[in-house]
Amino acid sequence: MVSIGQSRRSTPIYLLFPPPARPKTFEDEEDDFEQSPSIPQPLPPPPDLITLLRSEFPPSPRQAERLVYLLHQATRHITPTKDQSTSIRTNYALLPKRSSYLKTVETNSSLLAPIRMLPPEILVDIFALCDSGSGCVSNLDAPIVFMQVCSSWRKLVLGSPRLWSSPCVVDGGDHLDRSFAHFTNCLEKSADSPLTISAVLYQNFDKRTPKLPDIFSQVVEHASRWRSLKLYVPLHSLGSTLSRIPTGGVPLLRQFMVWDTSPHEGGRNGVPGIGFLKDAPSLRVVHLRAPRQTLDGIELPWNQLTQLLIDCCDEPSPSPSSLDLVTLLRACPNLIHCHLDLQSSTPTVIPTTNLTLTHINLHHLHLRIFHPTPFLPSLTLPNLQTLHIECLHHKSPWDPFSLSSFLSRSRCPLEALTMILSQISTQELIECFSHLRHVVSVQVNAYDTTLDFDPVLASLVVPHTTGSTNPPQCPNLKKIIIFGPHFTPQPFIDFVRSRRYPIANHQGVTRLEIVQAVAPSEVCQYLREELEGCRRDGLKLVLRDL
């Protein structure tokens, strides 16, 4: 015989006594009554019987027969209607009791809910997953919300430092003081937990709220617990705060990001006081966005980095960086994502073959080039997936065919290519497309007046002959954006139609989904009319007038 204790250990209580089914309400019974066989309405007496009632004459035999039938039908339904009316009155009398029972069930059935059986450590994990980690995405602060559910949850949240380890302050105008109070509260309640800190502050935030304590001083006090630090702040507000961090003072730091949110003004040269980063043993991600930011003077644990972003806010550095791309990539063998603003005062000599580099880990490369920088002949990136190159200098950023040679040499699985160039030849562009077997998205913004897009588009047309020996170029292309000076309608139409409806012998060609182009207004109008069928078929066609 199983004892009660054994039964409780073997089977959870909420399975032994499952919550009861929802009881029927009075409205449910009314619905059942309406769906039950109804009692017909009493038959009205014929007009001749009504007339006979107003006289002293007896009914005729035919009228008497009809009258007997009418009385019989009415008498037959008297008792059922009486029973049903009695039942309805009884149900109305039971409504208060029924409501009381229903309230008892709804109030106490939650005691058997499975969530009450979860141990506290599992609940804390769930609470931590509900929080986004940064706190800046929404004004909803997860710890505060959980504390308002019940006293046990409040006690659990207050006793779990991990739930307070993502302090964030957001400049929301009049609510900045309240946001800072929550930020300070998180720093206090997080105890020794690693911190994910975020701050989003705009120009003159300290003057708009003069009583605000020094937020950056408080942040630096907890530097030994930093796991991620994201500062979207006016650069001048940092001052010398970061320079107070001692050597080896950030042992847990994995991500460091500083973005300048102040209007662009002269006199600032990058993020100050970040020398402590060179001794950060866990650092993997560095994002710096500030006017005139260069790599000169920045000491980082290069061989640890997996992501590096240096953005000088479209403002070239007054002094060129001595660290070129090839040297940087050689120092960062584990780099996966690289976004750089390249500086060069004078065109340098193309490196010889002994200075070439093959980087096997780089997947994403985003370059903004302010001066001619002949780095492509030195690089081979066999695993590159995304390439963005932007150069609006009046001189060509590299020798002709350097880009196509780079793609041919790398044989990389490139999926997204963006080229915003002041100079590129038509033949070079055609050669580039011949090496993009895996590309899905292409954007070409060319400001070279000698570039003709018609031959480029013609090279991408899917052949309509079954005897074609050459496979179509860019078979996976789904999205293309083009902007250039020379552009005529028919090659564009042929390209779009052949890519939108590839014939049966080219089943490996992906259907084109998105096309964006810039052309004169009359050309755009003609293209819209000619490609209306493709647009109705689902093609996203965006044509902007010059």
From TrEMBL:
Comp. bias regions, Polar residues: 1-10
UniProt xrefs under Gene3D superfamilies: 1.20.1280.50
InterPro entries given in the database record: F-box-like_dom_sf, F-box_dom
Domain F-box: residue ranges: 117-168
Region feature (Disordered): 1-44
Superkingdom field: Eukaryota
Protein name listed in UniProt: F-box domain-containing protein
